[in-house]
Amino acid sequence: MSFLNFHTHCPLPEGEATLPAFGLHPWYLTEAWEDDLQTLFPPSGIFLVGECGLDRLCQTPYARQLAAFEAQIRVSEQRALPLIIHCVHAVDDILRLKRSTQQPWIIHGFRGKPQQMQQLLLHGFYLSFGFLHHVGSLRACPPNRLFLETDDTAKPIASLYTMVAAHRQTTPDLLNRQCWDNAAALGFTSTLLNNCDSF
């Protein structure tokens, strides 16, 4: 079974698989973001919307970020696709917007403390952890809410699975199986997962 790399911007090495996602990142939103959004999503072959979200530390005007994020939430709801969230110092707005949605949301690259993790879990979020993470949160995250990712890092994800398995007192293979089970719980059928060369 290939290792599931839940979110990456790098070419996948042999032995890894990911779930195709399309979205407008808050760092790169132009004034023409609405036109970009119209041409972004192919009619099929999408598993997730994102990464998209809110970032109070980037240069993009926050009002533009909110408008683009809300538009992508609508795409997620209309097409019944889970949403990958980029969130920097914007948890309150993320939680507010989540209340009116049905689709699963996944916080990517989660680095928060256990208290923030518990708040997100209470609202139904999944969490995807990368090489930079809070060890306490990583250890305490429920198995059925956990994903692993490399994001912009070119390291093989197998090394992350080995690290995380040691923290969680399990094996990389069992951890990988759990992550694939979590992907299935998001609504991905075995046929779709097979198309990702995962098995």
Give structural notes.
The chain is α/β, with parallel strands linked by helices and 199 residues long. It has a single domain (3-195), classed as TIM Barrel (Alpha-Beta Barrel). 40% of the residues lie in helices and 15% in strands. The protein contains eight helices and eight strands. The protein has helices spanning 33-40, 62-78, 91-98, 114-122, 135-140, 157-168, 172-185, 190-195, and strands at residues 3-4, 16-17, 21-22, 48-55, 83-88, 105-107, 126-129, 146-148. The strands form two sheets. Strands 3-4-5-6-7-8 form a six-stranded parallel sheet. The chain is globular and about 45 Å long.
In short:
With 199 residues, the chain is of the alpha/beta class.
The low-confidence runs, each spanning 5 or more residues with pLDDT under 50, are none
Radius of gyration: 16 Å
Please count the beta strands (DSSP E, at least 2 residues each): 8
- Oligomeric description of these chains: single chain
**Count the helices. How many?**
8
**Fourth-level CATH superfamily:** Metal-dependent hydrolases
- Average pLDDT: 93
Shape: globular
SSE run: EEEHEHEHEHEHEHHH
Instruction: Write out the strand line-up for the largest beta sheet, numbering strands in chain order.
Output: 3-4-5-6-7-8
Could you tell me the CATH topology label.
TIM Barrel
Could you tell me how far the N terminus lies from the C terminus, measured between alpha carbons in angstroms? 5 Å
Please identify the structural class as seen in this structure. alpha/beta
